[in-house]
Amino acid sequence: MPIPVTVLTGFLGAGKTTLLKYMLKAEHGLKLAVIENEFSEAGIDSQLLGEQPVQVMTLANGCVCCSIHGDLTRALYLLLERLDAGEIAFDRLVIECTGLADPAPVAQTFFIDEELRERYILDGIITLVDAAHAELHLTQTIAQAQVGFADRLLLSKTDLVEPAAVEALRERLARINSRAAIRVVEHGCIDLAELLDVRGFNLNPDLGVNLKPMLRPVLKPATPDRISTMVLRTEAPLDIDRLSSFMNELLETHGKQLLRYKGVLNIAGEERKLVFQGVLKLYGFDWDAEWAAGEARESVMVFIADELPEATIRAGFEAMAAG
Questions:
Q1: CATH code of the domain in which 24 resides
Q2: How far apart are CA 133 and CA 136, in angstroms?
Q3: Fewer beta carbons below 10 Å: N end or C end of the chain?
Q4: Are residues 232 and 186 in the same domain?
Q5: 204-258 pLDDT, tens per residue?
Q6: Is residue 123 within 8 Å of 6, Cβ to Cβ?
Q7: Number of helices and strands (H, E) in the chain?
Q8: Does one domain contain both 254 and 105?
Q9: Number of structural domains, the chain?
Q10: What strands lie across the sheet with 54-58, from one edge to the other?
Q11: Nearest CA among 266, 268, 303 for reference residue 288
């Protein structure tokens, strides 16, 4: 069975290291391996920081901590070598990104390298958001991108902020990324079930997004965020060749702007659902279960993207759907 991988990212000072310490030291009965790089705010364990490019240490509760100075792929292979040799044991992996890091290259590692793809499976991207400083952090595109890539958003330091401000932040995060569930983490403590087995990269018909209209108006920020969620939908059966052309052109022109995307599609002449999802220009698709009797056969695509020309893309999608 492939080893599930959780990618942990988030704003500087949001509490990633505190959360990692909790994950490593809690008596949860899991055998976790954590890859931590040298740019984090504070090391998990100062003993791990040395001149070696990769150091691995087994902790008292059986978890494994890996400190890297350099290439992630090298660390991933080293862990597998030691696992296969029986030197260490773990059944889940958590990778911490630096506070200023783009999580895309980390996610792409598990799509591009064939051997790593067989041995590991990307389970989810978790982003910590510092509620006390989110307004400042979200002025940076990279912070918005970290939110956009996420399968789950963890709010820290909510006790330092008025409830109304927390609610406003929740609404803003939902506009940026409506796929990600939002949870509160208190001083690094959270039920690990909220972080593990997210299945954010599984090919399944669960879009992970509430597509129903909100019951009350949402106040948009004075300066619109660059990253936002875009939803395309149609009840018309889609021609698979026209769909392929639409997606190829979209990825060719805007692939670098498409942080995360997923779709459940009704294909003309086919009783099964077609599901697809991707990160930037890398995506996969597969046939899923048949449409249930009486189920509305609506095609829905959800894109979380950086400054897409929404009107142009909607027009292209409608033309494709019209046949």
A1: 3.40.50.300
A2: 6
A3: N
A4: no
A5: 888 765 544 333 334 455 557 999 999 999 999 999 999 999 999 999 999 999 9
A6: yes
A7: 9, 13
A8: no
A9: 2
A10: 54-58, 64-68, 32-37, 92-96, 3-10, 120-130, 152-156, 181-184
A11: 266
Q: Model confidence at 54, in pLDDT bands (50, 70, 90)? A: low
Question: Residue 316 maps to which CATH number?
Answer: 3.30.1220.10
Residue 162 lies in a domain: yes
**Same domain assignment for residues 186 and 282:** no
The domain in which residue 310 lies consists of: 227-322
Amino acid at 248: N
Q: Does residue 179 belong to any structural domain of this protein? A: yes
41/89 same-domain check: yes
Residues 284-321 as b or e (16 or more Cβ within 10 Å = b): eeeeeeebeeeeeeebbbbbbbbebeeeebeebbeebb
pLDDT tens-digit profile of 5-53?
999 998 878 888 888 888 877 777 788 888 876 543 444 444 444 455 5
* Domain limit, last residue, from 194, 212, 242: 194
Residue 122's DSSP bridge partners are 5
Same domain, 160 and 72: yes
Q: Token digits for 23?
A: 């994950």
CA dihedral angle for residue 290, residue 295, residue 300, residue 304, rounded to 10 degrees = -90
For residue 146, the surrounding DSSP H or E stretch is helix 141-149
Identify the burial level of 216 via C-beta atoms within 10 angstroms of its C-beta, where 0-12 means exposed, 13-18 middle and 19 or more buried. Answer: exposed
User: Considering the domain boundaries, does residue 172 fall inside one?
Assistant: yes
CB 201 within 8 A of CB 284: no
